Amino acid sequence: MKDTPAKLARSFVLAWPMLLAGCLQPMAELPSLERREVELRDRAAEAKAPPPPIESIADPALARDLTAMLARADKAEADFAVARSAAQQAAGAARGKEVGSESWSVAQTRISALDAPRRELAQILGDLEELYVARLQKEAAGEVKPGGSDQIEQARQHVLALLESQDQVIGSLKASLAS
Length: 179
Known about the structure:
Blueprint: H1 5-23, H2 37-40, H3 43-48, H4 60-94, H5 102-112, H6 115-141, H7 148-178
């Protein structure tokens, strides 16, 4: 059985009211496509914001752990800044050069060098998340006083913002070589 243009036209005429009905649903039931508040946040400003005050934590062991983790995060960020400078110079020299050229290869190597401090920061974020979950469990069980989890979450948000800022730098450097 072959579809003729007349049969297709009839099928379309019969399907038309159902298609139109789907378009006429009230808009209140559909989710908004506007940008959400979390998408409007300035991650770069959050990354530059100082980490939470550690001295306000009543638990000395938690304060010591957070201080050590934030010191590691500061070192990873400083290492990233040094590597970023070299990568930006190399990427600038490679702009407009052929893929596979000497300057392009050097730029790719310098951009790849950014992965080591970024990986360290990602490890710190994972450590903070584990610490956060463990602290919440201890607080829920009544083993420790509530409150330390708030500082861990602030530290986690700080490290996450640093990580996202680094991701943007790496992405923009890679994009500059692609054009």
